[in-house]
Amino acid sequence: MTNWLPDIGTGDGPIYVRLADRIEQDISAGLLAAGARLPPQRDLAYDLGVTVGTVGRAYALMRERGLLSGEVGRGTYVRGRSVEGGRASTPASDESPLTDGTRLYDAPAEKLRFDSTAAPDVGQSDEIRALLGAIEREHPAELASYTRRFPQTWSAAGVSWLARNGFRPSPECIVPTLGVHAGVMAAISAATAPGDGIAFEHVTYSQLARGTRLIGRRTMLVASDEEGVIPEDFERLCAQRHPKMAFLMPTAQNPTLSIMPEARRRQIAGIAARHNVLLVEDDLYGALTDDATPLLSTFAPDRTFLVGGLSKSVAAGVRGGWVLCPPHFTDRVRIAHKMTTGGMPFMLAELGARLVLSGAAFAIRKRTIGEINARLALARAAFGGFDVVSRPNIPFLWLALPEPWLSGTFKNAAFEQGVLIDDEDEFKAGRTEQVFHRARLGISAPRRREEVARGLAVIRDLLDGGRAGYDSFG
Known about the structure:
Elements: H1 15-28, E1 37-38, H2 41-48, H3 52-64, E2 68-71, E3 75-78, E4 99-100, E5 103-104, E6 112-113, H4 124-138, H5 140-143, H6 152-162, E7 174-178, H7 179-191, E8 197-201, H8 206-214, E9 218-222, E10 224-225, E11 228-229, H9 231-241, E12 245-248, H10 262-274, E13 278-282, H11 296-299, E14 304-309, E15 320-324, H12 330-341, H13 346-357, H14 360-382, E16 388-389, E17 396-400, H15 407-416, E18 419-420, E19 422-423, E20 438-442, H16 449-465
Parallel strand pairs: 6-18, 8-9, 8-12, 12-13, 13-14
Antiparallel strand pairs: 1-3, 2-3, 4-5, 7-15, 10-11, 14-15, 16-17, 17-20, 19-20
């Protein structure tokens, strides 16, 4: 462990930002070598005369920048920078676990996973197994080779799955993808160039923001409230910083669960048209809701990429997804998807299409919704009296943490008690001073409701007990 002690007496911004900046500077200067273990948060907080939460936020910010890795109980390690291009390098120590954002890349098997919102197990393996057997029998040549053709049924499945609230896509504008994430990245790659700006809400599905930066685009933050992106701030951002594209989740936004009303969707579409900004509408969770608000794509079909998939409704492992493109982008997105993913596997694309066109996907989705709502009832009972945002059919909650809990500290405390949850930093799309003091709890990953109830009880005990039982951690 290094004896390093940073100087945070100078610099701009809050203390945690100054500390993060100092860590980055000392890595660049060679004072912190790749593989070096940083002091525990509590020790460094004591030495600097700051709170543990301040150090925790600085460490989390550095993980976001790709320069630190580690988790509570294992230590925090410098990943460093490679000489070429200033990119993060792999930590030298094999004691340091890899992370995916603020999540463990390889989560311990014994922990309850409340950090995932994949479709719950509702017996969908039976339908999937039958369809896989039929595909194997009917298409042995395609399984043994690369995908060279895209049957019309794959696009027809996308039309059926993405159609909602009176909006029906055109099949010639559909691109099958390896899930929603791959579809969005293909749209960004096809429609923007390195250096272009992509707008994200302050908290959102931030892995896309990280992917955006990885391919050389710039992330820009736009403010939102309980009804989604604020039109006035979107107008300001478009006028002042000229983003090329904006990523939005108008229905059941992750993690806030906001639903953008129709009037605001019309405003956003109008602003995008005035400033020539492309839009990505992620309707992954929207497909689970009963919300009748017209899709954003209804108001801006010539500039919106509508993206949806099966991961939350049917089965995440199928990797089924589709992008509805503005007509002049369809071929470019198909090529970009192949270039960024290596190509669409015939087995997965055919499986996704058959699930949808056979009606099995819709039947599984109905069972999924029933299971999610049963688990939500457990959560509502567990968190009575606490400020928690939830919506019917949606497999996560946005939990407000009472004083004096900080989001990252609460996540670490839950980890120590055997439950993996997501702190708010996991969803921050960039450097922001906006603080929510919330955590997201996904309730769909545990196999049985009994496990859900057990994890909810652990979290409730932490809320009731406060920080008193956590003083020795850090």
